[in-house]
Every structure is written in C-alpha cells, then in structure tokens.
Write a structure and sequence with these properties.
By secondary structure, the protein is of the alpha/beta class. It has one domain (3-293). The protein has helices at residues 13-22, 72-75, 97-103, 121-126, 146-154, 165-173, 185-193, 204-209, 212-239, 254-258, 280-293, and strands spanning 3-6, 27-31, 38-42, 47-53, 59-65, 86-91, 94-96, 129-131, 176-181, 245-248. A hairpin with a 2-residue loop joins strand 6 and strand 7. Helix 5 (146-154) packs parallel to helix 9 and helix 7 (185-193) crosses helix 11.
Length: 295
C-alpha cells in the first residue's frame, strides 16, 4: 500500500517521514511554501534526491548517497539527523536546500513552474509515502494559509503548466490518502504560539517593536487559517473525487493507519519546531484566551 498525506502547518509531516524511514520505507515531500518549489525523496538506504525546475523550464535533479545514523540515539527524531531541509551542498556555510535555491543566483529556480517540474512526480509517487501532493493538482503556495485555502475553494491552480493534472488525479485515486488534523486545539494553539517561525517568537522585533498585541493577533489568524485549510483540502479532494480518510494526530494509531511497526512518541517532533520560550506563563495565557474564543 502506498500512502499520501495532505495537511496544513504543524501537522506531523516531519514525524511521519521519520517514522517511515525508521520502518525501512521511502518517502517524498513536495515543498511549495516559499518559492521556489522543490521535491525531495529519501529511501531506506538513505539515498536522497532533490528536484526543481530552472528558469528555462528544465527539471533539475540532484542525488546524494547519505550516511545512515550511527545509532538509534542519533536517529532519534529529536535530533533531526540531516533534517528534511538538509542539502549536501552548502550555501554560506548552511546545508539547506531552501538557502541553496533562494540565495544562489546561479541556480535560477522557478517560482511558478511553467515547464517540466511535474516530471519528478512519478518518482515522488513511487515512494511509500508522498507528503503534500497538492502540486500534482497544480497548486503551489504555503499550506495552511488563507490565501492557499481561497485558491483551493476557488479551484484556481497557479502552476503555469497544468497539462499533467488529469493523469495524476488518477494516480492519487489509487493511493491511500489521509488528511491530517489536530483534535486537541489547545495543543495546536500552543505549537503556534511557542513555535519557531511565522514570526519567530523570540525575535524582539516581533514581540516588542511590533507589540505583543499584534503578535497575538497574527498568530491567532495563522491558527484559524490553518483550521480552515483542512476544510479546503476536503473540498478539493471531493471535487476531484479522490478518496481520503482523516488522520487524528492526537489519537489515531500510526501503526494501524500506515501499517508501520516502529513509531515514535506522537509529540516527539514538537521539540525541533518549538523555541525555548522565556515567557511560558504568557504563552499559556495566550493559549487560554485563544481556546476560550475559538473552541
């Protein structure tokens, strides 16, 4: 059985791929949050592939035989051994595919993919797990946002080349598709208020210069858009008649749903994506306020 996983932000994408790797199974991830778009694959022998489209419309492919972790401790999901954004070529001393594609002008990666980016989709679907297959329906953009949800509800794919969509709809119909979601809204809200990025909690320019009130309002908007995005995913998969089930990130069994035998604690991947908050009491109050207003 091959699986697809659709979701919004902070929905266990990293943890799920680590679980598949731990069970000697392959996975792929299509990343479109900040242009340019790229895809990455990893197999149980730690062979990695990356794909993107250049400004000439050509598909660019890099591959690298990585070294497996030395021990279970090194592999532990807390440690993020060669994380999902890792790339074997450094950019300004940072081994990041995102920095490589955005900060090296000679790379010239495409934002809207008018050419042959879709030619990597067959390889992505050959993996046991494909995370975020929305580009196979023609959608690029940051998942979990209001803008992306609006695009899905309006059925307005934004990739320049859409000639491939029909055949990949058929491919997705043949897979076991899940939409991941959080039932525990309090925990979900905490992950946003204490989490890294969008905007970074510990950044004083966010917390002080732009005021605490603005920070809380912005994070509240992000959480609500994230929850709405789950409805948008249902809408677009129903539109294409792609079957799916829900995966409850707080209660469902990874073993039962994905056929794996070895799993991590379901919240094990929170740590790499949560800052070490100084103002814990304040975060708890923000979360309390959010849950009261948006149960």
């Amino acid at each position: 059985m091959k699986y697809s996983y659709f979701c919004a932000k902070k929905a266990g994408k990293y943890l799920l791929r680590e679980i598949f790797l731990k069970n000697n199974r392959s996975s792929s991830l299509l990343v479109t949050g900040k242009p340019p778009a790229y895809a990455t694959c990893i197999t149980p022998d730690w062979k990695r592939d990356w794909y993107w489209e250049n400004n000439n419309g050509e598909l660019v492919h890099h591959e690298y035989q990585d070294t497996p972790p030395d021990s279970n401790e090194q592999f532990d999901v807390h440690n993020g051994y060669h994380s999902e954004t890792w790339f074997y070529i450094p950019t300004y001393d940072s081994y990041s595919i995102k920095k490589y594609l955005k900060d090296r002008p000679e790379v010239k990666a495409s934002d809207d993919c008018p050419g042959h980016f879709h030619k990597c989709y067959n390889h992505c679907l050959s993996m046991d797990l494909c995370v975020n297959p929305l580009p196979m329906l023609g959608y690029l953009g940051e998942i979990g946002t209001g803008k992306m949800a609006d695009r899905l509800f309006a059925r307005q794919p934004n990739m320049k080349n859409l000639s491939f969509v029909g055949r990949f709809v058929e491919r997705l119909r043949a897979r076991k598709n899940y939409i991941g979601y959080k039932e525990d809204i309090r925990h979900h809200a905490y992950n946003f208020f204490a989490g890294t990025g969008r905007p970074v909690y510990m950044n004083p320019d966010v917390l002080f210069t732009n005021t605490e009130e603005k920070y809380v309002a912005q994070i509240t908007k992000l959480i609500n858009n994230n929850r709405r995005f789950i409805v948008a995913l249902q809408y677009i998969l129903d539109y294409y008649d792609i079957p799916y089930e829900f995966f409850n990130l707080d209660n469902d069994s990874y073993s039962e749903k994905f056929g794996v035998t070895e799993t991590f604690d379901r919240y094990a991947s929170d740590l790499p994506f949560v800052d070490k908050p100084t103002y814990q009491d304040k975060i708890e109050q923000w979360v309390d306020d959010y849950v009261k207003k948006y149960p």
